[in-house]
Amino acid sequence: xxxxxxxxxxxxxxxLVTGAGSGLGRAIARALAAEGAKVVVSxxxxxxxxxxxxxxxxxxxxxAAVTAxxxxxxxxxxxxxxxxxxxxxxxxxxxxAGVFRGGTSTADFPLDAWRELLDTNLxxxxxxxxxxxxxxxxxxxxxxxxISSNLGAHVxxxxxxxxxxxxxxxxxxxxxxxxxxxxxxxxxxxVSPGASESAMSLLPGETEAERDVRMKGQSPLGRLTxxxxxxxxxxxxxSDDAGSAVxxxxxxxxxxxx
Length: 258
What we know:
Elements: E1 14-18, H1 23-34, E2 38-43, H2 46-58, E3 62-67, H3 73-87, E4 92-95, H4 111-136, E5 142-147, H5 161-181, E6 186-193, H6 208-218, H7 227-238, E7 249-252
Parallel strand pairs: 1-2, 1-4, 2-3, 4-5, 5-6, 6-7
């Protein structure tokens, strides 16, 4: 006998998704809401967050938008405070906010781009973890999923040293934080997508159709990873189904890093 797949794993739970104004963050937020979560979507641009909220509400879900900049620790603490105020707690957090900069060799990598990558992709995750864990460990625990990348800890390409360093560090930070806080009831994991349905996977001047053709040759799977597939991996790790997953870095890249 097989049991039916759960369709409401996050009913009565409060979830926060950073970088939720578009792309993977929007897909993750919609997937959480579809399974019953009350979602706060966050990012730096109010208009795009409003679009995400409208999509969730059109699907029958519950969502609110709070603007924040993960590079600013105070902004993130206020984001968590507002999430708790709006939805009564914080049970699930997905730290997805990130930026992509590349196309320059290590010797010539601009220091301002390097700092932006580390401030947002790495220190932004640390700010988020610190604010989220502070609430969760005082209120019975919770689950956190950091969005890393297959680029960094799993695959390296030329011209992307800053991005790859920032994401490899997220993978390492995830494992370290997971060990630090599992005894406090806070379970922390990561998902490392490869090229997927987001603007970050487009080369300069490339169309989505051209990207699809390119991925047929670059991915062993022969196609781009869908945003829904990445979201499904995130929801698995965030859910009780993954209760023994601690410090996992789940790569979802169609076999590129296999």
